[in-house]
Amino acid sequence: MDGKELVIQTYKHQDVERAPWVPFAGVHAGKLVGYSAKEVLLDEEKLFRALMEVNKLYQPDGQPVMFDLQIEAEILGCDLMWADFVPPSVASHPLRDTSVMMEKTISKEDGRIPMVLRTMKRMKEAVGDTTALYGLFCGPLTLASHLRGTPLFLDMVLDSDYVHKLMAYTTGVAKTMAGFYIEAGMDIIAPVDPLVSQISPKHFQQYLSQPYQEIFSYIQRQKRFSSFFVCGNAIKNIEEMCQTGPDAIFIDENIDMAQAKIITDGYDIVLGGNIPLTTTMLFGTQQDNMKFVVDLLEKVGTKNLVISPGCDMPYDVPVANTVAAAQAVRYPDKARQLIDGYTSKSFDAVIDVPDYAHLKRPLIELFTLDPKTCAACTYMLASVEEVKSKLGEEKYDWGDYRYNNIKDIARMSKVGVKNLPSIYINGELVFDSLIPTQEELMKAIERVC
Asked: Which CATH class is domain 356-446?
């Protein structure tokens, strides 16, 4: 059985000989052939070459063609900030200071869409018979945040009519993108919506339930499979996500797979994930990657399961680590033998955490994955920075720690950080995978003064 058929059988909820392997190699694909993130996301020939190298080295059962959540935002007027080793980030928000609703429609000729569609068709011809191809687009809530910026989270509380209108608009964009990718031959159509983890179940039901039901119903009417990608600690919204009717849900390392699978199995929905991007894939060893995979398989079995990185792989993930994960998926019994007795390395470091009980000034600490690559982290950081600029630095101390370097990982471990992104004040968790409005954050800070 080839990889594509294995993915299809899994999405049809059939018993399979093993779990499918779907590596999310976006900018990391460029690393394999010596291209920067910017090169591989802007140049069709370089993108195609990089994708083919992913297919050759990692032997995926399923493979995304493009992992960039800023394509639509760029077309709709957001300025992007480019970097060599991460996807671009949104640097401006055209709806931030206006209540006028956007009316622009997206066409196949806009922005980078022509390049993406041509690459999809080339990949379909080259590997589409044996590899299930994923078409990923920006989910409606994250696109709304790109357009509106941090005021969107206050809008959800104070101006529900505006949010409903904006969500109707971004849902229309999402369905348009889904239609383009279906026409280009993609097998699985997937909205990627990191901001879902940053809202409450109440707000999910209020603003996202109907849009996502529309999106998944549209995809399934076109005889394609659908997947719902989310980042961060979205466990509070897994039930609501299931109720929108996707064929699969993909989650990252912030969520326990076994806990989530109890919920998704209740709806007979495939669950995908969630090899840790930094501690295992980037900074770990081959044995760490094999161990995570075989431990995961022992916990949740193979039915209704896809094994993948928790999200888009970091650029510098060692090839050997990804190959080790792939081999563990394909040959779990052999991998168990190879790691027999192995203990994963720790990330302890000499880190002095503050004496929170005796601080001279209030301390606000932000813990994120990486604001350059994680949309939820981007907007939580933006909220903190805006409040910081208002309050100044005379009365408060500020800390910003990221899960992409070993010292900060060790610090998070010592502080006891469980979920990312999150905000702590004087060592106490205040906002856990929930982006605060400026008013909410300022009130939280004022309470400790």
From this structure: alpha beta
Q: Of 278-282, 311-315, 433-437, which range is least confident?
A: 433-437
pTM: 0.91
Which segment, 36-45, 335-344, 354-363, 397-406, is predicted with the most confidence on average?
36-45
Give percent of the chain above pLDDT 90: 78
Class of domain 3-338: alpha beta
* The predicted structure's pLDDT at residue 388: 86
Q: Report the first-to-last Cα separation within the chain, whole angstroms.
A: 64
What is the pLDDT at residue 424? Answer: 93
Q: Enumerate the domain spans of the chain.
A: 3-338, 356-446
Specify the length of the chain in residues: 449
Q: Would you place residue 409 in the very low, low, confident or very high pLDDT band (cuts 50, 70, 90)?
A: confident
